Structure formats: C-alpha cells, structure tokens
Structures
1.
Amino acid sequence: MTGSRYLLTHDRHSVLVDCGLFQGVKNIRSRNWKPFPVDARDVSAVVLTHAHLDHSGYLPRFMKEGFRGAVWATPATRELAAILLEDSAHLQEEDARHANRHGYSKHHPAEPLYTADDAQRVMKQFRSTGFGEPVQVGPFTIRFSRAGHILGAACVRVECAGRSITFSGDVGRPQDLVMLPPEPLRASDWLVLESTYGDRLHPSEDAAEQLAAIVNRTVARGGTVLLPSFAVGRAQVLMHLLASLMDARRIPDLPVFLDSPMAIDVTGVFRHFNADHKLDAHALQRLDERVTCTRKPEQSEQLSSSRYPKVILAGAGMLNGGRILHHLLAFGADARSTLVITGYQAEGTRGDALLKGARSLRMFGREVPIDCEVTQLDGLSAHADYAEMLAWLKPIGQAPRQVFVTHGEPVAADMLRQHLARELGWSACVPEQGDEFELD
C-alpha cells in the first residue's frame, strides 16, 4: 500500500515514477532505511503522480543519496509537496530526538531519515507542468492527465521508442464531493494500476446523513465530536460537509475547529487552485465563516480543556501522532463524546485497533481508556472502488498488452486482477516488490 516507486529505464536513461515513503507497522517502515536498489545519481528525473507521502515522502532521502535531477509534478502537487515533506521531516527529527532521549534505538545516536533542511533543499529540484503538456526527459515523453483523488493528482503517461506505458497513480471517484473526476485514459501498451479498493465497493449510504446523525446525537449528550483527518483532502471535505449541514439546519450551529496547521496551509492551496476542484468562491468563504482555525499549541490546549459541545478536526488521520492524540487523551474517557474514524486505517495503527474493538490505546507512555463512542464514517474515500475503476477503464476500448496491478493489499490487488480478466478480458498480473519486466 505504501512506498510507491517505479523505475523505467531505456538505454542509459532512467525515470523514477513516484518516490514514496513506506508507512505502517515497524517492519514496513524499516524499508525506508534500506539502500535504494539503484544508484540515485543515475536517475535522470523523478515524476510524481501526487503529493501524498506514500508517493513523494522518500524524495529528501533520495536527494541525500545523490539524486540531482528534476522532480516533475503538476503545480498543485508541487505546492502540496512543500507542505507535506517539511511536516514529514519534522516528524523524522522528533522521532530521532525521542529515540535518543529514551535510548531505544539500535543506532547511537539515532538519526532522522531526513531533516527539514533536506526537505527544503529537494524542493529546489521541483519543476511543474500542467495537465496535457509534454515534458521531455531524455528519450521519454511524459504527460499528466487528471486523476481526481486530491489536488494536482495525475496519471502519468510515458512514451518512448514507439511504445507507451501509463501509471494510474491513485484514482479518484467520479462523484467525489470536492474533487473533479478523473479524465478518461488514452489507450496504452502497458498500464500500472492502483488497487486500494480492488476488492470492495463503497457503501451507498449518504455520508452527509451519517455525519449529521453523529453530530446530533453527540451534541444531545453534551459531548465533543473528534474527527481525526488527513490534512490533504479529507479535512477539506469534512469542513465542507459540516458547513453545508449547518447552512441547511440539519445540525445545530456549533463551534467547529480545524486544529491542524498543516491542514490550514493545505486549505490555502485550495484557494490558489480553484479550477482544480468543485468548491467555488462561496463555498470557500463559507469555510472561513463556519470553521475556526487554531495554529498555536496554546489554542489547541484550550480546546482540550473546554467541555462545551463542539467539533474538532485534527491530524493525524490514523491516530499515529499529531494533535488529535491530545484531544483523545482529554475526551477519550468521556462517554458523551464521539471519535469518528473517517478514512483508511493501515494495519497496526491506533485507528485500526479501535475499529477492531480496542477499548484502550497506548499514548504518551501509558494506557488510555477509550469510553467515548467510536464510529466510522463511510463513503468519504478518495479512491475509486473496483466498479468505479472498471467503469473508468472500459471506454479505453483497446486492451493494454498487460496490466500491472500494484499499490493494494494482496487480496485487493488479486481481486482487481480477476475483475479485469473477467469483466474486461484484460491480461493482468500482481507483481512482487522488486520485480522487473522487459517491455518490448
């Protein structure tokens, strides 16, 4: 699911499509420390499908290993990457400081994977181009097409020596609440296809209706609604839903706080790229009127100490760090309050544990009881499910020679492979990490 990296080579030239960070449980994260399988100095360029860290988060480390080429991305991806990479670097530095304080690292002293200075330096290698505009890197001609999913997200088409290969990146949904739908794909000799929801269909329930019911019953109890949310995309969708529900009088007017400096910055990027999403000027203004942004730590602490009914959106979306943990420490034992899981939870994360029935969490060195209501808000995924994916692919008509199904858990990837074979008649395989293919 994480650490997306695909290397294309032709003669002496090579292009890396995505340069992602491995995330999740410790044995997966440890892959970030392994040497890159090729010399970073030999890679001509990196091409990013989008800014999420599982697609971009290894870039500062790759630069430290000697990569000196250009990083090609859409303008919105470039803006988002600057925010996410610096935040990731601060987390790497904090993890190293924590390991040194408590002495649990096998390396002495513990070092961060990369620093904030590294993140700022790699941004100087970024170059941006719009959707549909060709970029030439040696023998490779590269074009981006809109993928939906998040701001700037793109499918990457690469043409070389009379052949073509398309990398889907993460594919958005046709009826997303905020993002524009993915553009139709052109026929391609080969296709590398994500499979996050390859074995699932999204629920048909109305997410707005679900959220309204959650807020109303929590407010009736006098509790606080905690919404752990990813800074890019999910936070903006939730703010838009809450503002719309209050405007429609489907929930009471109550304080809503965005307690995430990174999500606040990302919301600013939405204003810069208003042609790339569905929120018009009025909708964006409504967010300003309905949502209070809290940047300072002392503001966040005041939210945790207050007991009036409210909604708090804070990172991180999988409860693996961030301000949401401090709010959960304050409200997790309060039976009046509600914690709402709003997105995919990787195996081994606190969010995953709660969905599996855990009633306590290890936080800040101790077990914290969770007596508040824990519920899940379905239908907000930014990934197409397998039916939406097939509907998006079917108009291509001409089958690729081969589809490489990647970026999904094993069952999801294999189920999508089967759907492609049965319903479209396409040849598909699920590669293992490190597999190599000759495209001729």
2.
Amino acid sequence: MNLGDYHIEHGDMPAALEAYGKAMEMFPENLEMKYWTAVALASRGETDKAAAMLREVYEKDANWRELTRRLPDAGILNLSQKEFEKLVR
C-alpha cells in the first residue's frame, strides 16, 4: 500500500493501481486500500467504477466521504465538477 501511495504522490496512477490491487488482494476488507484504489481509478477517468467502490467504503465509514471532498484542494484529485459529484454522493 505504501508503494501505491508513493505512486499517487508522483502522479503515476497505473503503478498506483497495480500496487493497491496487490494490497487489496492481501487484505480485501481493509477500507483504506479500497479507498485509495478508487481514488486512483477516478484519477484515470474511471469514475463510475471508482464511485461504486467508494459507496461501499462510505457505507462502512462516512468519514472517507469528507476526505474525498478535500482531495481536489490537496491536488490529489483533479476532475470536472460533474465527475467529482459522482464520487461524493
């Protein structure tokens, strides 16, 4: 998962997805791993898939929705308003 975080910080979403995918295989119930995988997917334009994953995360812990709202200001998630709204509803 740390390797996935590293790749997110450096804008390498394909590598981040690969690392997060491996982490999720190891710990499928870990919300943080699922969350950051969804963020990486959204960053690649796969917002529908990301939104579905995020809904699962939000159902278990709504605090992740608030973090999602903060990602654009942190420069981590750059989407159109329409695409971003899919992620936070």
3.
Amino acid sequence: MANINFLENEVIEFKKTTGELKEGIISIVSILNKHQGGKLYFGIKDSGEIIGQDVSSKTIREVSKAISENIEPKIYPVVNKVKLNDKDCILVEFEGDDIPYLAFGRAYMRVGDEDRQLSMKEIRKIILKDENEIGKWESKVSDYTMDDIDEGLLKEFIEKGRKAKRINFPYTNKEEILKKLSLVNKNNELLNAGYILFAKEAKLEMQMAIFATETKLTFLDIDQVFGNIFELIEIGEGYIRKNIKWPVNFKSGGMERVEIPEIPLEAIREAIINSLIHRDFKNPKSNEVAIYKDRVEIFNPGEFPEGYKPEDFIKGEGSIPRNPLIANTLYLSKDIEKWGSGFRRITEVCAKADVKVKFEIRKNGFMVIFYRKTDEELLDLTGENKNNSANDTENGTQIDTEKLILNLLEKTPDITQKELSEKTNISLRTVKRIIQQLKEKNKIERVGSDRKGYWKINNGEK
C-alpha cells in the first residue's frame, strides 16, 4: 500500500500493538454505539505514525476470538493483515445495529476520538430509541443502484400482486414502482430491502445439503446458492421437493397415479419464506436447508423476539417482523397471507397430513423441523396393509402399491427390482418384499435367470 497519513476520529481508532487489545475492544463498542460501524488499526500510534507490528495467522485468530468473547451482543468483524507504508498492521472492520453494545459488561460511547463510559440513564435512553427502529438494516441505503434491479422480475411481481388484488396500480418503470413500494428513499436511492428482493445478481446465500443418516457425519449432496429472495424461495422449495418421498396413490377404480409428498409443499414453502423474512441480514451465517433420513430442517440466522415463544404465534398473538419492508412486499404478491400467520398455517397443514413439525429456538437462529416417516409408515399412512391389498378410503381413493408394480411388470417384463424402486420412488427393500408376496400369491413368476430372464403375470388378473 502507498505511504499514507491519517488521524483518529469518531469512526477510526489506532492502537500501537495488540497488547492494547482490551482498549481496542472498548473503542469498537464506543464506535458501534455512536455510528454502528468503523475501523480499528493495530500498528499505528495515536498521532497517526505507522509503526507496524508482528502479524501471524495466530494473531489474527486471537484478535477475532477476543472480540467475539468480550462484546455483547455478538458482532462479526472482518480482521485482516494489511500493509501500510510497507509495514504489517492489522485492520478490524466492524458494523452492527443491535445497540447498546457492551465491552466487558460495560457500555461506552464515542465522543471525538475518546471512549466515554455510559451511565444507566444513558443506556436506557439508547434502548428506548432502538426499540422504535424496527427494520433498520433493510431501510438503509444499499451499495447498489437501479441498474442492478431485475426489471422483468419487478414486472412479474406487480402482475402477481394485481391478480391477488393487493396492488391497484400498473407497472410503469423501475423508479416509480420501487418508490410506491417504499424500497427507495426520498433521494431515489435503493434500500437494502429493494436490493435483496429484486436485484439481478443478489448475494443472498442459502446452503443446502442431504445427509446419509440422522447426523451430519456423511453427506450425499451439498450445494451453495446465491440469489434474491424470490429466487431462493423457488430454489429451496425445489431442492426439498426433489429429495423427499412421494408415496403413490391410485384413483379409485383405475390405474391413474396420484403422488403425494411426504411433507406438504405448502408447509415447506411457508417455512422457507418465513426463514427469509425473519433472517438477520447482518449475520454472516446463511439460511440453511438440511435433509436427513428422519427429518428436514430449515434454518435462519437471527434471534427470536425476546419474551416470545413459537407457541404465541401459533395461537395468533400478532407478529413482530424483523424486516417489515420485505414482509409487506411478500404480502402484496400473496406469497404470505398476513403477518404472523406462518407458524399457524404450517402447524395446521402438517396436522392435516399427519406430519410432525417442531419450531426450535437456537442460540444463533431459528429452525423449523419436519419429521419424516419410514417407508412402512408411509405405506400405512396411504392405507396399504401388510398384504399390500387395496383399501378404500373415505374419499374413494385407493392406495395400491402392489397394483403399481404389477402394472410395470406387465409393461416392461425385463425390468429389474432396482429399476422398479427408481420408477416408483419406493425403497428397494419394500419392492423386494412386494415381489416376494406376489410370487407367494402365484400372481407372478420369474422366467429365466435374474440377469436375462423376465417377469410373467399369471391368470391375467393384476
């Protein structure tokens, strides 16, 4: 880096070495409580003279750890080694809106280039002010402009809202529409909410994975995707849709297949939308979708509203959206019905489908867990008994896996049991069991070898 000279101010602090780490942490808190962001350098005197210091990867880790352990609420600074006047220094860049912040249990405020400890009266004043500033991150001006907005997506959104009768104005142009949606400020600058919702190449992240068992020890698939909120809703729902089981039903009296997802898609979509609406976008941790053998988890970073439990919202006791601008936009397109109804809708849909669902507050976020059934439980749920005979349900729909397999054997006599499993989405173990039962009933027989033979249907009745 070129030779530079600069001075401390209300958002920049200098420390000679990491021997002054404690004082540096106090300065971080002071700056956060006044300006919600700033920079701290190690290796520079108060006068601005760059003296440098020894910097190793261990030093960087120690600085990050000390900041993490001694500031509350937690922040996620970026700590890097930098060259200033050809000398090694450490730069800590930080930001946060959850004021007041405490360093070693005490609150401080930046005044000029000094760190002043706050009284209890001053702390209470900050808390009251902060409580009236919901949606601070989404209301800030973004680093992006109108040129980054996907106009096609914006047009589709307006059309969808008009069909839902929640938007009563036609599409005109990006600037006018974003202003009507309150996604720009009075200077027509794009807010974070507008960027996250409608940007062409938004950097909102979602991590998705499939695990082989009930733990995270072995994964079968893993993916990391980026996009805006509307894109991630579709990607997340599609990933789960593709990787859960779809038990096969038959309409009464015929062979028409009706596939029903083991977890209601309406509940899955609602959970993904909720996880994005209530995400803490300042937290570097991403939204997550994890599919296990026994459950599906949907996670979002961000603390649950203090003093509330998920049961309060299931009962319909209002809503406390972390990001009201984003929530209101999704309401206008009818992606959500109304604020605060998500948990109740998920609960009702899952109860109707006999799917167990759990809402869990985690230390660093919130999780919705859908519990999956075994293959045998799914067969019982759809009405198939142990002998795989068709059972009529109240609505006249029959569930007959045996009939499905017989139909496939007749159409493709050389089909393998593995191919049957893949075509029907039924486990190989269950396919083998049904094949054995069909043999015992003398409904089918194997002609020739396992490799080159074929299946013969007996008596013409399936």
